[in-house]
Automatic annotation (TrEMBL):
Its EC number(s): 4.2.1.47
Highest taxon above the source species: Bacteria
Keyword Lyase: yes
Name of this protein: GDP-mannose 4,6-dehydratase
Family stated for the protein in its record: Belongs to the NAD(P)-dependent epimerase/dehydratase family. GDP-mannose 4,6-dehydratase subfamily.
Catalyzed reaction equations: GDP-alpha-D-mannose = GDP-4-dehydro-alpha-D-rhamnose + H2O
Domain NAD(P)-binding: 6-346
GO molecular function: GDP-mannose 4,6-dehydratase activity; NADP+ binding
CDD domains xrefs: GDP_MD_SDR_e (cd05260)
InterPro entries documented for this protein: GDP_Man_deHydtase (IPR006368), NAD(P)-bd_dom (IPR016040), NAD(P)-bd_dom_sf (IPR036291)
Origin organism lineage: Bacteria, Pseudomonadati, Pseudomonadota, Alphaproteobacteria, Rhodobacterales
Pfam families, A to Z: GDP_Man_Dehyd (PF16363)
Signal sequence residues: none
Length: 372
């Protein structure tokens, strides 16, 4: 029997990689996409199949985590073996601007899905994966963080995700549902949203290299993160639902770097050497050398990064470092791509796109380049 999976957030970074993985494994994959005024399926267009042809295995449904009746109807029609709840307002800084919406989608949205599964009598059939997060640890109580480390969320996003974490545990305990939390540390890729820090850096510096942007404006570059690759992490999301009994797992690399280091890596992948001088909001990064031909519009002495306090958060998560021992011992999961390798892959992809833009510009076909 072909297994059926339903993915909320299929149009996002993880959703797209997970859909690819499940299709490779022979699943019929259903995804929920939001109605938007522009097409928003760019990350899954390459795997989308015309629904008019027989045996199309990727199907998209319009829906929203704020709409119970819509979720119930989709679950009733699909009767999935596995639900991956990846949909969320996932930006921590934005959650301070839109706390109520974030709670509605990230916290109550999770409850809506679990309750719909129960209401439809699918609680013994459907396995449920909840996209939990290292942001739950927030003001960290223990280094490194593991499954038993106490939570101290530091943003409306993290507080909403804490509700989602516990409601998944509660439905497991109360109704015997197969529900698991993956407590995932930051993971990135060339498909990462453009306003998360790694992608902002790789895309921003690639644009600067090709003369499309003048300077990168950053927030807290002292922040430390444990960065992995999204491809490695979605593999673990699937593995978690294949066990005999549901459990929660920390997914991380066990290594951390600062945002400043990530900026240096990305610059170096473009042949640029940077020197950081000054402190606090006066810190800048100046070019001390340029090698090769990847950054034709950059010269020694240019200032490529400045601090803009607009990007500081009302409460910051300064440091995150995960301990993935349980995932390794119980499931044999180990990440295959290092943060350094991932940075190179992201820079290559963003540089390719910047070159395309620069070429169009040189022919008088200037396209606006969005910056945050
Ligand atoms: P993205 O922001 O790339 O994707 C989020 C997805 O959720 C998009 O498909 C988005 O749709 C969808 N979505 C947003 N609001 C709603 C809504 N109201 N109803 C239905 N769908 C909605 O996130 P990631 O792929 O990076 O992350 C996946 C999940 O994992 C998220 O829940 C995130 O919070 C969590 N997580 C992510 C980590 C990371 O480092 N990437 C680490 C730990 C947890 P649209 O495309 O239309 O915007
Ligand atoms: P995070 O990711 O908040 O950890 O949440 P993000 O990449 O946004 O920030 C990481 C760190 O970088 C600092 N920072 C900046 N961040 C952004 N976005 N823009 C800047 O200009 C900037 N300058 C410095 C931040 O302050 C922060 O300390 C991500 C999301 O994917 C969540 O959904 C997920 O749950 C967690 O990772 C784990």
């Amino acid at each position: 029997m072909t297994k059926k999976a339903l993915i909320t957030g299929i149009t996002g970074q993880d959703g797209s990689y997970l859909a690819e993985l499940l299709l490779e494994k022979g699943y019929e994959v259903h995804g929920i996409k939001r109605r938007a005024s522009l097409f928003n399926t760019q990350r899954v267009d390459h795997i989308y199949e015309d629904p008019h042809v027989d045996n199309a295995r990727l199907k998209l449904h319009y829906g929203d985590l704020t709409d119970s009746s819509n979720l119930t109807r989709i679950l009733r029609d699909v009767e999935p073996d596995e639900v991956y709840n990846l949909g969320a307002q996932s930006h921590v800084a934005v959650s301070f601007e839109a706390p109520e919406y974030t709670a509605d989608v990230d916290a109550i949205g999770t409850l809506r899905l679990l309750e719909a599964i129960r209401f439809l009598g699918l609680e013994k059939k459907t396995r449920f994966y909840q996209a939990s997060t290292s942001e739950l640890y927030g003001l960290v109580q223990e280094i490194p963080q593991r499954e038993t480390t106490p939570f101290h969320p530091r943003s409306p996003y993290a507080v909403a995700k804490m509700y989602a974490y516990w409601i998944a545990v509660n439905y497991r305990e109360a109704y015997g549902m197969y529900a698991c939390n993956g407590i995932l540390f930051n993971h990135e890729s060339p498909r990462r949203g453009e306003t998360f820090v790694t992608r902002k850096i790789t895309r921003g510096l690639a644009n600067i290299a090709m003369g499309l942007e003048p300077c990168l404006y950053m927030g807290n570059i002292d922040s430390l993160r444990d960065w992995g690759h999204a491809k490695d992490y979605v593999r673990m999301q699937w593995m978690m639902l294949q066990q005999d009994t549901p459990e929660d797992f920390v997914i991380a690399t066990g290594v951390q770097f600062s945002v400043r280091e990530f900026i240096s890596w990305a610059a170096s992948d473009l042949g640029i050497t940077l020197e950081f001088t000054g402190t606090g909001v006066d810190e800048i990064a100046t070019v001390t050398a340029v090698e090769g031909n990847l950054a034709p519009m950059v010269k020694t002495g240019d200032v490529l990064m400045r601090i803009d306090p607009r990007y500081f958060r009302p409460a910051e998560v300064e440091t995150l470092l995960g301990d993935p021992t349980k995932a390794k011992e119980k499931l044999g999961w180990v990440p295959e791509i290092t943060a350094r390798e991932m940075c190179r892959e992201m820079v290559e992809a963003d540089h390719k796109s910047a070159r395309r833009h620069a070429l169009l510009k040189s022919h008088g076909l200037e396209l606006p380049v969005s910056v945050e």
